[in-house]
Each structure stands twice: as structure tokens, then as C-alpha cells.
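user: Kindly work through both lines:
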Amino acid sequence: MKTLKILTLVFTLLILSCGGGEEKKESSKVKLKTQTTEKKTAVKKTTTKASETIDLTNKGVGPITSVTLGAEIDQAMATKGAEIYKKMCTACHKPTKKFIGPAPIGVLSRRTPEWIMNMILDPEDMVAKDPLAKKLLMEFNGSPMANQNLSEEEARAVLEYFRTLK
């Protein structure tokens, strides 16, 4: 008899608990149907790195205001420039890949010859006064370019060497 009462009680509780759950499911379905959905559009911010920025109008800050490049590469000057580059620049620059400083490969498609020579001749003044040079300094973790105290002739030879990098 006692077992019959317990079974009846358990059975009744099961029926009541199942019946209550169905109502909750339906009410939650209604809530889901009536909710409005908001679509958020993410704005993708694209910024070009200073080393990839193309600026063929800026001549930089310094003594070089005009450079004339010949139609053909001056091989003797480029060879001299390669020697200077190897001796003075390879501690921080690799010809074709980023290192401590940017790679010079393709630099003439992104910068004017005047800007390049001014950067070689007086990197301190360029970083202080030229916006692009300032951005390059930040991109390369604040590592300033060392002034190698090259002459204009030596800087021009290095520029000619840069023309050979493909």
C-alpha cells in the first residue's frame, strides 16, 4: 500500500513536471520569434605601413633638391655603391628583406631619389622634420638610422646600387 502511494506520487510529479516544461518551451519560442536581430557591420581599418607607402612627390629635408637619373644604370657607380652599402649599411639593412631597417629593394618605386639621398645624408634631420621618415622610425621600433657621414658622391653611388636591386 505504501509503495502504491509512493508510485502514485512519483507518477503525478512526473506528469506535472513534463506538462510545465512544454509551456516554457513554447513561450521561449515566441520570445525568440519576436526578438529583432541587429546586424553589426565591422569596419575594417586598413593602414599602409610607412615602408610600403608610395610618395613620389616628397623630396625630403636636406641639401638634395634635384637628382637626375640616367636612362641606363651606371654600372661603375652601382658597383661602388654596392661596396659602400656592404661596408656601411648591412648591419641594419638587408637588400631584399626587412631587418632592423627597411629593405632598399624597390625603394625607387616608393620614394623620390632626392628623399632617399637626403635620408642617407642626414637621417637625424629627416626624422625630425619629414613626416614619412617619422613614421618609418615608429614602424621600425624607434631604431633611428645611423648617420654614416657619407659624401653626396657616396650617397649617389648607393642610390645607383639601389636601382640594380630587383
